[in-house]
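User: Could you check the structure of this?
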Amino acid sequence: MFVFVCAGCGAELTAPLSQVSLPAHAHQTYGNGIQLPVLMESGTFAVNPEPSGPPWRKWEEIDPDEAAARGVYAPVHALSDGAPGAVVIAPGDIRGTRLIPEKRGGACCGLDGADGPNTICEACGLPVATRIDDCSLWQAMWLAPDAVHRLLVDGADAGPLSWQKLMEEETSTPPFEPVVSWGSRLGSNHNWSWSPQWEAGAGRALAHLLAASGGQPVTVPNGLTEEVFQRALDTLLPAGPQERRAVLAGPELPAPDTDADILLVPVHPQTGRTWTPVGPAASAYPVPLPFGMWLWLAFPQPRPPVPTSGPLLDDILHDDPLPSRPPHPFRADQRAFQHALVRLPAVRSPWLREILEHVTQRRVSGLF
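Assistant: Sure, the predicted structure tokens are below.
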């Protein structure tokens, strides 16, 4: 467990926290006027290894070799020249700070952080964090990496859970959830939607699936996995006889087939590392999925009950009205897709660069 303290005066700024990996949806902007929940679980923190925040440089001002050295292999609108290592926590885990509400940025319903740090250390006045709570953004507190220090508080690091422990203790992320507009209450006015977390995780995974395809068709398992990925793969990749096969793989699943070219595997929610098979399947391309999303795909939850005629018995499970499915096909998060794809060396291939350009210029509709 760690606490973060002010770099200026040493005052404690957080509750004790344990480190987890940065969620795939950490920088997601979802819908229009949507009220999103808190990004991080209470008692946890994650670190963004890349530079973040101002100052920004447009792509035209950056040498391609410099961008490649930073792990960016295709054009983006701009790159941050801010400090790397920003730390994100749940807003409820902050301590000893004061908000500066005037620094609300360009937000419409709350704070979006566009003006830089909007939270100061109460003891010395140093700007230490940025509170985010605007509509369509995940609620979070981002600690400025150059304004805080991390201190170990219990004298020992318990270490990450094993894959076996994760399977016992972690819960899966449902693919559907109700979404609420800012300022409204959850009730008859809410809509059922595909999970924003699934859309972000699928956006990142789709970038890897394309890179793994080598420009050939790719098939994924039937069912929900097909519903999430196949339409985009069929649209973005050419048809042909030499298709590549992607399968789900991971803890407690049977060993992958030796003829599988691509493995859809879980990301460890604490370390950020992907699950790695042993044996012949180790040479297949691993496509990372958020653990909760992978767990639902690999071990689907029971379907909701179906309507029937006649009286409802007391010992029969029923739900009235039945949960609704989203009214539109699944769409991956475009920003998560582009963020991942430009950071894969394979994007230098002309065919994959062309796909990126089509998506960036919105010449592909209905997938994102």
